[in-house]
């Protein structure tokens, strides 16, 4: 049994803790949040010790694996802290707000001899893994046109820090990065990105087209402040196949309750799943197995760095209105 | 009741067959002649409907009783046919794209103006009821100001061979399928396109023989800062349940309008066809477009979609090719 702990008891911290609790190969031993209420609530729910200080938790509990689910601007300092205590790290996406910081996190973990994994969970959604497989089977190497979108309410409505791009990275670095990592994993290295971004207090919309060497075009949209339920959609079209999917199309159960009035603070929307093992479970289980076996994960820390590089390039294109060329390492040329 | 006598000039574009069927439903219209250089595809059709047939369009134009013509020739002939029709004093409904260069389209517009005839571009998507309802909602201010568009006009590879022949079509999917949704974007923003950045390629021929572009992504920036992106690819394969789509998402400061214009459909699963298909039951855009054309001419009011509208959207497609060639965003010359 691998001893795990969770830093950050917000929306994602709750998910990580919950999945560890139900995973035979893991033992959740502690959680931590600087917000005492959040720490206490999750600690009591999970029946584990809860801490207000990550350092204190690491010192006392000596977890083998630490999940980091604090706001994005704190990812890298937390990764370093966990690595200092010799814990393997599973960090929520995006790894960092900048590629320089992301590289630094990878170097730091290497130096400390701990493994680093980043929660690019879309790779673990069966709809998307099957899509990638379908694209491969049907001659994806010859090029095609891909569309994907991800839209929902503004997370700043429930967690204020999301509103500040200096803390969250904004909709490209936080939300589009899911699809950015996915297209990297599926189509390989891109040559160029051309993007548009619009941001106000209440909405952040981005549209980015990535062009790949074989002519594949991937047109991605990410939207915070969409006036409707969270949803995702994709379509791949190649010469021999069209594959499309998304939510709510791919949902098989709807539970609809009469609406309660008013809105309360809470957690950011995450997709619910009707699978025995949901994608977050699959992801965490996969990472724990990689730790046990020493195997390479489906999505590496280096992949996570590249995803941040592409996101940076998209942000830069959106800001200048000009296409941005990417080098073979995903850096801006 | 006053009647309108309409001539049909060329059946190169298969829309002509549909237009003819629509016109014949209209009590205020007489189809007074069909001119088509390929008798095999039209002579018998004309005979069956007791419509005079001409192999030379000039003979059709020489008939003084014809009030207006519908031009469905290959793109490269649109200008010649429109100018000849206007010279003969006929009003014109011209299939899209209106022309293959800004100069040519300006001459078409000026020529019609000089002769006092009206020029309408065939943009039936303007007459799709979902689009009309969306425009009304936008005009009521329901989504505030427009920030961005995302559109698709994905289709199947067109039947007639000339579509793949640049000397007749002037371009592939990026020309053929940019113009419709581009016209809608122009209509909604009311602001001119200032910059175009596009990709184009050939991705959808399973035999890898096609040489004309069948795929692309067209990005536009309007003078008012609005951004738009549009997929004009001929990317539907025969397994897809329908010919293609017209979708437009309009992101506004206070809301979003999503149009999926052909989503009014039944799902049909046939043993014989071996696949599922979508059967569209929404209003008929071609009929509504022709109705609007005919009505404007009978009432002497301006046609609802002009030659300038045709130019404004075709020039985006033409500049898309320029952008592909230059590998960078291009500004539109005005
Ligand atoms: N993979 C996904 O699907 C997904 C979904 C949502 C969010 N995320 C990512 O997960 C991360 C967390 O997002 P969230 O929605 O859970 O945010 P959240 O605001 O709900 O939770 C963050 C928690 O961290 C706590 N925290 C802040 N500083 C801390 C510190 N120094 N030590 C301990 N705890 C601290 C906060 O009090 C808060 O409870 C973000 O990076 C976000 O991008 C991923």
Descriptive report:
The complex is a heterodimer of chains A (333) and B (334). Chain A has 10 helices and 13 strands. With 333 residues, chain A is an alpha/beta fold. Chain A has 2 domains: 2-119, NAD(P)-binding Rossmann-like Domain (Rossmann fold, 3-Layer(aba) Sandwich), CATH 3.40.50.720; 122-274 and 301-325, 2-Layer Sandwich (Dihydrodipicolinate Reductase, domain 2), CATH 3.30.360. Chain A has a 7-stranded mixed β-sheet. In chain A, helix 4 links the parallel strand 4 (65-68) and strand 5. Chain A is globular, with a radius of gyration of 19 Å. The relative contact order of chain A is 0.15. Chain B has helices at residues 15-24, 39-48, 57-62, 78-87, 102-114, 129-139, 166-169, 173-176, 179-189, 285-299, 307-326, and strands spanning 4-9, 29-35, 53-54, 68-71, 91-95, 119-122, 146-152, 193-201, 215-222, 227-231, 247-252, 255-260, 265-269, 276-280, 330-331. In chain B, helix 5 packs antiparallel against helix 11 and helix 9 crosses helix 11 (307-326). Chain B folds into 2 domains: 4-122, Rossmann fold, CATH 3.40.50; 127-283 and 314-331, 2-Layer Sandwich (Dihydrodipicolinate Reductase, domain 2). With 334 residues, chain B is an alpha/beta fold. In chain B, helix 5 (102-114) links the parallel strand 5 (91-95) and strand 6 (119-122). Chain B has 11 helices and 15 strands. Chain B has a 7-stranded mixed β-sheet. Chains A and B meet through strand 7, strand 8, strand 9 and strand 10 of A and strand 7, strand 8, strand 9 and strand 10 of B. The structure holds nicotinamide-adenine-dinucleotide. Nicotinamide-adenine-dinucleotide binds at residues 7-13, 32-35, 38, 54, 69-72, 74, 92-93, 119, 121, 159, 174, 267-268, 270 of chain A. Residues 7-13, 32-35, 38, 54, 69-72, 74, 92-93, 119, 121, 159, 174, 267-268, 270 of chain A line the site of nicotinamide-adenine-dinucleotide.
């Amino acid at each position: 049994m691998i001893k795990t702990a969770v830093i950050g008891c917000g929306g994602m911290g709750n998910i990580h803790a919950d999945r560890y609790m139900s995973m035979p190969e893991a033992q959740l031993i502690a959680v931590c949040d600087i917000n005492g209420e959040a720490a206490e609530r999750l600690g009591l729910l999970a029946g584990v010790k809860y801490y207000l200080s990550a350092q204190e938790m690491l010192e006392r509990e000596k977890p083998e694996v630490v999940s980091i689910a604090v706001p994005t601007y704190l990812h890298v300092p937390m990764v370093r802290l966990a690595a200092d205590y010799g814990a393997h790290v599973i960090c929520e996406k995006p790894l960092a707000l900048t590629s320089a910081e992301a590289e630094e996190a990878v170097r730091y973990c290497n130096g400390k001899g701990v493994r680093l994994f980043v929660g690019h969970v879309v790779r673990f959604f069966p709809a998307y893994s099957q899509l990638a497989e379908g694209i491969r089977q049907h001659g994806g190497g010859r090029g095609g046109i891909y569309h994907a979108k991800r839209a929902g309410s503004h997370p700043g409505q429930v967690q204020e820090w999301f509103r500040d791009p200096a803390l969250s990275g904004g909709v490209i670095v936080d939300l589009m990065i899911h699809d950015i990592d996915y297209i990297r994993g599926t189509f390989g290295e891109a040559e160029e990105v051309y993007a548009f971004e619009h941001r106000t207090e209440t909405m952040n919309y981005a549209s980015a087209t990535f062009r790949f060497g074989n002519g594949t075009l991937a047109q991605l949209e990410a939207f915070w402040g969409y006036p409707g339920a969270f949803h995702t959609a994709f379509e791949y079209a190649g010469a021999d196949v069209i594959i499309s999917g998304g939510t709510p199309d791919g949902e098989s159960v709807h539970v609809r309750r009469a609406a309660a009035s008013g809105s309360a603070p809470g957690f950011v929307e995450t997709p619910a799943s009707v699978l025995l093992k949901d994608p977050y479970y699959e992801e965490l289980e996969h990472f724990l197995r990689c730790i046990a076996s020493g195997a390479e994960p489906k999505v590496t820390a280096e992949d996570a760095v590249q995803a941040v590089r592409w996101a940076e390039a998209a942000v830069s294109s959106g800001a200048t209105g000009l296409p941005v060329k990417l080098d073979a390492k995903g850096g801006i040329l | 009741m006053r009647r309108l006598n309409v001539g049909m000039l060329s059946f190169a574009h298969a829309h002509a067959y549909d237009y003819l069927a629509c016109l014949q439903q209209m009590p205020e219209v007489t189809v007074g002649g069909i001119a088509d250089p390929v008798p095999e595809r039209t002579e018998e059709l004309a005979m069956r409907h007791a419509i005079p047939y001409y192999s030379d369009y000039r003979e059709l134009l020489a008939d003084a009783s014809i009030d207006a013509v519908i031009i469905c020739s290959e793109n490269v002939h649109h200008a010649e046919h429109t100018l000849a029709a206007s010279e003969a004093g006929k009003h014109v409904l011209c299939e899209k794209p209106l022309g293959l260069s800004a100069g040519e389209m300006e001459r078409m517009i000026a020529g019609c103006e000089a002769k006092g005839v009206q020029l309408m571009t065939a943009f039936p998507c303007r007459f799709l009821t979902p689009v009309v309802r969306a425009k009304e909602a936008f005009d009521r201010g329901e989504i505030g100001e427009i920030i961005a568009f995302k559109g698709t006009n994905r289709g199947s590879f067109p039947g007639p061979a000339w579509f793949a022949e640049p000397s007749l079509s002037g371009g592939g999917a990026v020309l053929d399928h940019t113009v419709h949704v581009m016209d809608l974007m122009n209509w909604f923003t009311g602001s001119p396109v200032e910059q175009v950045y596009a990709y184009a390629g050939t991705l959808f021929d399973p035999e890898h023989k096609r040489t004309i572009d069948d795929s692309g992504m067209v990005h536009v920036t309007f003078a008012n800062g609005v951004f738009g992106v549009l997929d004009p690819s001929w990317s539907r394969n025969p397994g897809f349940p329908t010919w293609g789509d017209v979708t437009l998402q309009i992101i506004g400061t206070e809301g979003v309008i999503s149009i999926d214009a052909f989503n009014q459909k039944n799902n049909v699963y046939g043993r014989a066809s071996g696949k599922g298909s979508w059967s569209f039951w929404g209003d008929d855009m071609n009929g509504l477009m022709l109705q609007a054309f005919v009505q404007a001419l009978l009432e002497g009011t301006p046609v609802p979609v002009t030659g300038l509208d045709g130019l404004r959207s075709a020039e985006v497609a033409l500049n898309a090719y320029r952008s592909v060639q230059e590998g960078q965003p291009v500004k539109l010359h005005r």
